[in-house]
Design brief:
single chain, about 90 residues, alpha+beta, Arc Repressor Mutant, subunit A, two-stranded antiparallel sheet, about 25% strand, disordered N terminus
């Protein structure tokens, strides 16, 4: 999809925007690993590392990995860095 943005002296800049599916937790509470990789913009290997280090919760049913979006968001908020306050 193309979107036009105003730039400076009234000129228009045409920008191509790629939309990614970001699932709403109320609509689809359990998703597969590909949806989590897209949501956080990470590669499969990074997700494997996060799972191995127990940074992100998951449920394995047979050979299928399922992730709760709400729980994953909450788990990753613990690693959010905040700016240091000081003079």
């Amino acid at each position: 999809m193309d979107k036009k943005l105003a730039v400076g002296n009234g000129a228009l800049l045409c920008v191509r925007i790629r939309f990614m599916k970001l699932y709403d937790a109320r609509r689809k509470p359990w998703v597969r690993r590909r949806a989590i990789e897209r949501r956080y913009d990470i590669c499969p290997r990074t997700l494997d590392t996060w799972m191995r280090e127990r940074r992100i919760p998951f449920c394995k049913v047979g050979r299928v990995l399922l992730f709760s979006i709400e729980k994953c968001d909450a788990a990753l908020e613990r690693f959010e860095s905040r700016p240091a306050s000081g003079a």
